[in-house]
């Protein structure tokens, strides 16, 4: 279930990055986010019901549950114009939880710890963009696009094939990917673009994440 949710997150991150870049209409991405977030919440609820109170099982789905709520919130915001400030503060909370997951996985699964740290960075960008209103829409958009496949889709496919990456080499590779995501986004964000694009409008931009 976790790998399937990771695949869904990859799709949501990509669509939302393209939305911030003005390539996908907000209403289209809103519907998509509602579908992805709703499906993730249903899957997490099913696991929680069958977990029989197992704390490890509940902990394993806690992060996915928060991501599902984020996507659902993003979708409803895009479709109904709720306002993005509340969404931004919620993303700040999710970023903090992601840091906790990164720390707790540092010795258990270092690759997953690096991925959680990367997702914490993404959700921190949502917080800065939506809650604080800083004009980082274009940078956030490219970070989403780059992270969508490298930190969610590819790891999910590896996990589904029974080849989840482990060991110091893979951990170092994951760290390099994280650097490439945020560094590459900075480079791409500086490219010439149309003024007034969706990514320039921090107050009205709508993200979505892992």
Could you explain how this protein is built, in words?
With 210 residues, this protein is mostly helical. Helices cover 75% and strands 0% of the residues. The protein has seven helices and no strands. Helix 1 packs parallel to helix 3 (55-80) and helix 6 (137-160) runs antiparallel to helix 7 (168-189). The longest helix has 26 residues, at 55-80. The protein is globular and about 45 Å long. The two termini are 14 Å apart.
Outline of this structure?
This protein is an all-alpha fold. Helix content is 75%, strand content 0%.
List keywords for this structure.
Serine Threonine Protein Phosphatase 5, Tetratricopeptide repeat; globular; mainly alpha; 210 residues
Q: Choose one word for the global shape.
A: globular
Relative strand content = under 5%
* Helix-strand category: mainly alpha
Rg value: 16 Å
CATH topology: Serine Threonine Protein Phosphatase 5, Tetratricopeptide repeat
Instruction: Give the count of helical stretches.
Output: 7
Mean pLDDT: 88
Which CATH architecture? Alpha Horseshoe
Reported for the largest beta sheet, the result is: none
Spell out the helices and strands N to C.
HHHHHHH
Can you tell me the CATH class?
A: Mainly Alpha
The CATH homologous superfamily is termed AmiS/UreI transporter
- Work out the helicity level: over 70%
Task: List the domain count as a whole number.
Answer: 1
Subcellular location: Cell membrane
Keywords: Cell membrane, Membrane, Transmembrane, Transmembrane helix, Transport
Membrane topology: Multi-pass membrane protein
Protein name: AmiS/UreI transporter
